[in-house]
Give the backbone structure.
Amino acid sequence: MGQPMLEGIRIVDLTSVVFGPYATQMLADLGADVIKIEPPSGDQFRMAGGPSRTSGMGGCHMTINRGKRSVVLDLKQADDQGLMRELLKSADVFVHNVRAEAIGRLGFGPEAVQALNPDIIYAHFVGFGSDGPYAGLQAYDDVIQAGTGAATLAGRVDGDPRPRYIPSLIADKVAGLHGAYAILAALVHKLRTGEGQVLEAPMFESFTHFMLEEHLCGGTFVPPTGPLGYPRQLDPHRQPFPTADGWISIVPYTDDSLLRIFQLLGRPETLDEERFATPLGRAMNISDLYQAMAALTPARTTEDWMARLRAAQIPALPVRDLQDVPNDPHLRATGFFTEREHPTEGAYLDMRPPVRFGVAYARREDGAPLIGEHTESLRAEMAAAKASAATTGE
């Protein structure tokens, strides 16, 4: 097994909740030394995810902060500010989601940090881009879903006009992905040129970019050729299909697959109707074909349909309840879930990073840290480094 891919990269992480920690989680998985700076009360997201065995070690903290070191600092105190400055001198990346005015008052704005470490990558994760009228506003997942139109999508499908949130912290996590690749790109630039930089990853713009990849649709053109909203995703009948004992997702993405599906359903004559007789006609009337499929799929069980659809090479998968996902046979076979032992929390399920590399590398497998678990060891490390520098005259 090779070395961790990001071994030797030190990231000082002053982020909280999900957006920032999700980004640094991916970097920790790749081997970066992520030092999570927390206030004495800890990151508030430590309590999320249901009851925990130890205070501040909730399920969400266990998944999103594994492999990091936790250091408690009160950055309003002079001594802790001093330790933070020493730490930043040794860092490759400083990432935070504190608003610009507040971080400046603490003495850790971009100019101050670059004065300590000129080639550092200074990553500011913000709710809204700093050059717009929303700059400085607080942003949480619900707010971003509201502002990007995501909360109106369900109503376009089911006709209920009430805005509703997608029941996932999807905006936080998408923005975290953007933040992670931005840091990686800046690291590549630094390796090539030796040059650090200040980068900004805004949550609102990141999720708008994500949402409108398909939903900009007719609004792509000037003047618009149609409304925003990708019709295929907004079709109220493009939903899981009922079976004799559950539900199944079937995707007739190509015209050829549609022909094969209706053969399997035992109703090929459905496509003899004039409106379905040509590829264009089938595409224009796909919603009606979805309804026709839904009327036929209850004839067999999910397992029966899966066997037939796989044999016909038609994309399909059973609809699995959230509670049953850890028992999915594919995820079990690939080792996606691994039961590990945490020093204080006991047995827990760990999810391995989903991306696979052709070059083997060692993954950091430390569990999530207790609040301030590494504070004293880091203080000792920084003191030793400072003493060594003084001895060598560096």
Remarks:
- The chain has two domains: 10-211+331-392, 241-318.
- The chain has a mean pLDDT of 94.
